[in-house]
Amino acid sequence: MRTVVLKSVVKKSVLCLSLAALMPFTAYADKTDDILNSGIKRQGSGAASQKRIDAISEQTEKVIADYHQQRKNVEVLKKFNDRMRRTLQAQEVAMQRLERSIEDASLIERQIVPLMLSMIDGLERFIAADVPFKLEERRARVGRIKGYLTNANISAAERFRQVLEAYSIENAYGQSIDVFVEELELPQGTLSVNMLQVGRSGLYYLTTDGKQAGYWDTSAKVWKALDSSHNAGIAQAIRMTQDKEVKGLMLLPTKAPEAI
Description:
- The protein is α+β, with helices and mostly antiparallel strands.
- Among the domains are: 81-173; 177-254, no CATH class.
- The chain has 4 helices and 5 strands, in the order αααβββββα.
- A 5-stranded antiparallel β-sheet has the order 1-2-3-4-5, with helices on one face.
- A hairpin with a 4-residue loop joins strand 4 (213-217) and strand 5 (222-225).
- The longest helix is centred in the N-terminal third of the chain and has 128 residues, at 2-129.
- The chain starts with a helix and ends in a 19-residue tail after the last helix.
- The relative contact order is 0.04.
- The model is unreliable at 1-22 (pLDDT under 50).
- InterPro entries: UCP028069.
- Residues 81-108 form a coiled coil.
- Residues 1-29 form the signal peptide.
- It holds the Pfam family DUF3450.
- Keywords: Coiled coil, Signal.
C-alpha cells in the first residue's frame, strides 16, 4: 500500500518537473512565433510597398515618355508654323507684285486701246487705197476687229492679237499668188470672173468663158480691158496657180513705167 502511494507521488513529481522544465521552452516558442509572424507581416508590407513603388515608377516613366513625345510634337509644330509663316510672307510679296502688275496692266490697257483703234483705222484706210482684191473678206475682218475693240469681255491681249493678226494677213497678201472667183462690177455690167492676184503688183481677171480679160490700173485706180491676145497667157497663169498645169514662167502684161 505504501509502495503504491509512493509510486503515484513519484509520477506526479516527475510530471510536475517535466512541465516546469517545458515552461521556458513554451514561452520561447511563443516569442519565436511572434517574431516570425511579425517578419511575415513586414515582408507582406514590403511587397505591397514595392508594388506601389513599381507602379509609381511605371507611371513616372510614362509621364516622362509623354513629355518627350509632347516636346517632339511641339518641335514639329514650330517647324510647321515657321514654314507656314515663310509661305504666307512669300504669298504676301507675290500678291503685292500681282497688284502692281494689275495696276501696270491697267495703265498699259488704257494706253494701248487708243493705239489699237488707230492701227485698225489705218488698216481700213490702207485697204480702201489698196489693190481691190478680196475686198469683202478684208473689210469684214476689219469690222469684226472693231467690234472686238469695244467689247469689254475680250481681254486687251486678245484684242491686240487680233489687230496684229490682221496686219500679218495683209502683209502676207503681198507675197502670195492666188486665184478666186468674183462677181466683178464694171461699167458695161457685172462679169463672173476668175481673178488672178499676183501679190500687190498685179491683179488680172478672165471671164469664166475665157473671152474677156483685163487688169487693175494702180495709177488710175480703174479696171482696164486687155486685148484678147493676152487671154491665153492669163488663162495659163491661172491654171499654174491652181496646180492644174506644171508651174513655169507666167507671161502677164504689165504697164510700162512712166517716163521721168
